[in-house]
């Protein structure tokens, strides 16, 4: 039976990534690199072209079907995973390709194969799955931002009502972060590199046996890596320098955090006393094991909780920054868990995609919440108006201690100061348009609508430039 488990809890493993990180598929790019090595050896005339032709497409496909589980069985004898791989490849070769056996893994070291293979998995999984999912999420969020760009919502700081914004503005603050994450991931994915430099990174065997020559381009390393779509690192030891991959995985952590921010906002806005956001309740879904009436924000909670796992998983990456001299084995077991960061973030993305498609914003609740403190939330505008008009003293303290306590829903703060005759001269110097705003607090949304649409437009421009189809 094939094993398609991925790193981490199977509860949070999206099927979309099994092709890349499913356990029995992990060895496939390693085999691709061994085949690229054979092809490159023929190109530089180390092995005869006729011999390479014996490696038929059918045989290549047979080799690519070798599973990680098969390698594990051989590794129990070799105590070395890449040696186990080359042994199984040799066993799988038909009799008419026997002459190729001495050339499998020729001049390579294990991490020429394994490090570069993992880079292939990270890049391919991003380009073929994660990037497409993120693009779909961006498309849907643009629609939400544009739809609610003008819809007033109370802005909150420290969990308290502050000033009006719009629901589209709130969503745009999330969308802008997602867009930034998409751009960063694209950049970091393009920066991922491979290696084919030998046991200490100095091309010792390649130079001695004529695989590469000083000053000749392309180098043998470039030949091998370019066959699988990679460029080489500027320099390496037996292992790749950690920074390009660490930066790439950190970009995932940032995306995970931005997804968690959306989830946190939504689950708070789903509170019974707020009710501005609804998560669709489907089919036979149950909110509580004992209280049938409950409608819990389970998906949003799940998305936010996964970020804790992603953040913690990245600690393994930071712990793996250093090795002894040209390489030791301490980091090997640690790095095998790195794909968990990708797996978990893709799970978050797919959950976000699910909720954003059915997410509902309750405009009645928005209006109700705006009305709660509509009589006092223009305090900022009023104290600034008094200061501009020449109020003597501390206008902020005056509004805070003498005006706000007297305000009621039927007598908002601007009406309170109308009854204060000591302010007659000051009131006359307050511009008409400011008075109009004080009398119409729901219009005090600043540039919320315009900024929301700016973010939507910037995201739309990115989506149109991005050649990846969804």
TrEMBL record:
A Pfam entry, by short name: Lyase_1
Cellular component aspect of the GO annotation: cytosol
InterPro entries in alphabetical order: Fumarase/histidase_N, Fumarate_lyase_fam, Fumarate_lyase_N, L-Aspartase-like, PurB_C
GO molecular function terms listed in the Swiss-Prot or TrEMBL record: (S)-2-(5-amino-1-(5-phospho-D-ribosyl)imidazole-4-carboxamido) succinate lyase (fumarate-forming) activity; N6-(1,2-dicarboxyethyl)AMP AMP-lyase (fumarate-forming) activity
Source organism superkingdom: Bacteria
Domain Adenylosuccinate lyase PurB C-terminal, chain residue ranges per copy: 323-392
Classification via SUPFAM superfamilies: L-aspartase-like
Keyword Nucleotide-binding part of the UniProt annotation: no
GO BP annotations, alphabetical order: 'de novo' AMP biosynthetic process; IMP biosynthetic process
Domain Fumarate lyase N-terminal: 36-307
Protein keywords: Lyase, Purine biosynthesis
PANTHER family linked: ADENYLOSUCCINATE LYASE (PTHR43172:SF1)
Name listed for the protein in its UniProt record: Fumarate lyase N-terminal domain-containing protein
UniProt organism field: Candidatus Uhrbacteria bacterium RIFCSPLOWO2_02_FULL_49_11
């Amino acid at each position: 039976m094939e094993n398609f488990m991925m790193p981490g809890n199977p509860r949070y493993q999206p099927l979309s990534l099994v092709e890349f990180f499913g356990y029995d598929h992990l060895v496939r790019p390693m085999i691709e690199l061994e085949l690229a090595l054979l092809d490159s050896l023929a190109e530089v005339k180390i092995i005869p072209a006729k011999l390479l032709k014996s490696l038929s497409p059918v045989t290549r496909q047979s080799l690519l079907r070798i599973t990680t589980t098969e390698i594990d069985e051989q590794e129990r004898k070799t105590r070395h995973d890449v040696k186990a791989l080359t042994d199984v490849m040799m066993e799988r070769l038909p009799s008419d390709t026997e002459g190729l056996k001495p050339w499998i893994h020729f001049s390579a070291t294990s991490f020429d194969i394994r490090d570069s293979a993992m880079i292939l998995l990270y890049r391919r999984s991003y380009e073929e799955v994660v990037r497409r999912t993120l693009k779909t999420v961006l498309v849907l969020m643009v629609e939400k931002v544009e739809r609610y760009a003008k819809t007033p919502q109370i802005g909150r700081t420290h969990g308290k009502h502050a000033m009006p914004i719009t629901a589209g503005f709130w969503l745009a603050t999330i969308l802008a972060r997602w867009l930034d994450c998409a751009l960063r991931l694209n950049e970091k994915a393009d920066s991922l590199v491979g290696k084919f430099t030998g046991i200490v990174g100095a091309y010792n065997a390649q130079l001695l046996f004529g695989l590469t020559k000083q000053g000749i381009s392309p180098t043998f390393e470039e030949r091998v890596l370019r066959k699988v779509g990679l460029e080489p690192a500027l320099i390496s030891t037996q292992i790749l320098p950690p920074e390009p991959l660490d930066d790439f995985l950190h970009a995932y952590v940032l995306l995970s955090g931005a997804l968690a921010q959306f989830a946190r906002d939504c689950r708070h806005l789903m509170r019974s006393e707020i009710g501005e956001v609804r998560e669709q309740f489907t089919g036979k879904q149950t909110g509580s094991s004992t209280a049938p009436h409950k409608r819990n924000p389970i998906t949003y909670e799940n998305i936010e909780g996964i970020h804790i796992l992603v953040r913690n998983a990245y600690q393994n990456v930071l712990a793996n920054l250093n090795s002894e001299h040209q390489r030791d084995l301490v980091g090997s077991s640690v790095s095998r868990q790195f794909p968990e960061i990708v797996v978990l973030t893709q799970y978050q993305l797919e959950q976000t995609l699910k909720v954003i498609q059915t997410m509902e914003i309750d405009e009645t609740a928005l209006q109700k919440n705006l009305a709660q403190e509509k009589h006092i939330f223009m305090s900022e505008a009023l104290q600034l108006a008094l200061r501009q008009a020449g109020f003597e003293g501390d206008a902020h303290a005056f509004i805070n201690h003498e005006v706000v306590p007297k305000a009621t829903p039927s007598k908002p703060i601007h009406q309170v100061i109308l009854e204060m005759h000591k302010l007659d001269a000051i009131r006359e110097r307050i511009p008409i348009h400011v008075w109009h705003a004080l009398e119409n607090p729901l219009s005090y949304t600043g540039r919320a609508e315009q900024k929301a649409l700016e973010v939507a437009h910037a995201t739309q421009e990115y989506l149109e430039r991005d050649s990846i189809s969804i």
